[in-house]
Design a protein that fits this description.
Number of helices: 5
Helix content: 10-25%
Distance between the termini: 57 Å
Structural class: alpha+beta
Largest sheet: 7 strands, antiparallel
Shape: globular
Order of helices and strands: HEEEEHEHEEEEEEEEEHEEHEEEE
Strand order of the largest sheet: 1-2-3-16-15-17-14
Length: 285
């Protein structure tokens, strides 16, 4: 009987860690159609959670991802130029941004500097193909009619209809359900992920810091699923994480303000040069 009570206690306390149902009080408006929220999760480990909510119905909201290199550079076997998410936001005068695709480096490349890179999975920027689709990486797309989709059925992938696309790895939720194998993944890491509400009105960019003992120790896929359920997401996808995980917003002067605590170079508040980022243009409040 004692063991039964212990199990029940653990279940109750674990659930309580995620019991803060996301409501309107969670959100702070940053721009028209762009809200931000953050909170600390204390169990099953300490995690700092950050979320950008993008309202697809808001006037002026447009998405943008890292553009392709000029044709002569692509001919050498590279697709994008690496840059920090801070540089991506400031250079393109965006209002908010996060890192996106997994990527690879040419021989001798380093994530501590800018340079050439190849994206893993689909990349589309302003309707232009940056990187081709790959079977092992799942696209998150903004269609030209502003509909957000996570493409798990390749037969529905029509490049002609896509304005912006990035790609991730594991599908976290499909039609409100998490795949069983996702919930078995147990290693906590810094994570960046994207979710979509059932009515496709909202896009959620979710980030959880990691590798910071006692401050934020990272999330499993199961942790991400619980967070997305609270947010009201219907579909969700894991993007590149680890040292790449970065969330930024623009201040009143257009300079980037880092919202999380990235560990791009192995210590807090250091940035990685990523192969791809995705961001939004939005109007002032």
């Amino acid at each position: 009987m004692k063991n039964v009570f212990v199990v029940l206690f653990l279940l109750i306390t674990t659930s309580a860690a995620y019991a803060q149902k996301i409501d309107d009080s969670f959100w702070t408006p940053l721009f028209r159609g762009v809200d931000f929220g953050k909170r600390t999760i204390e169990e099953p480990r300490i995690m700092q959670m950050y979320v950008l909510r993008i309202d697809m119905r808001a006037e002026g909201v447009r998405f943008y991802s890292t553009p392709k290199l000029p044709a002569e550079e692509q001919a050498k076997g590279s697709e994008t130029n690496r840059q920090t998410t801070v540089d991506f936001l400031e250079k393109n005068k965006l209002q908010a941004a996060v890192n996106a695709n997994f990527f690879s480096l040419p021989e001798g490349g380093t994530m501590a500097t800018d340079g050439r890179s190849n994206l893993l999975g689909l990349g589309v920027s302003k309707g232009e193909l940056v990187s081709p689709d790959e079977a092992d990486f799942v696209p998150f797309c903004i269609l030209k009619d502003k509909t957000p989709v996570i493409v798990t059925d390749r037969e529905t992938l029509d490049l002609a209809q896509i304005d912006t696309a990035v790609a991730g790895g594991a599908v976290l939720m499909k039609e409100g359900v998490a795949p069983e194998d996702i919930l078995k993944q147990e290693k906590p890491e810094p994570r960046t992920a994207v979710g979509i509400s059932k009515d496709k009105r909202y896009v959620y960019f979710l980030l959880i810091d990691g590798r910071q003992e006692g401050v934020s120790e990272g999330a499993t896929y199961g942790d991400l699923v619980k967070c997305f359920e609270e947010l009201g997401a219907w579909d969700a996808l894991n993007l590149d994480g680890g040292g790449s995980s970065t969330m930024v917003r623009a201040d009143a002067d257009g300079k980037a303000k880092i919202l999380n605590s990235p560990v791009g170079r192995g210590r807090p508040m250091t940035l990685r040069y990523n192969g791809n980022s995705i961001g939004v243009w939005a109007q002032p409040l």
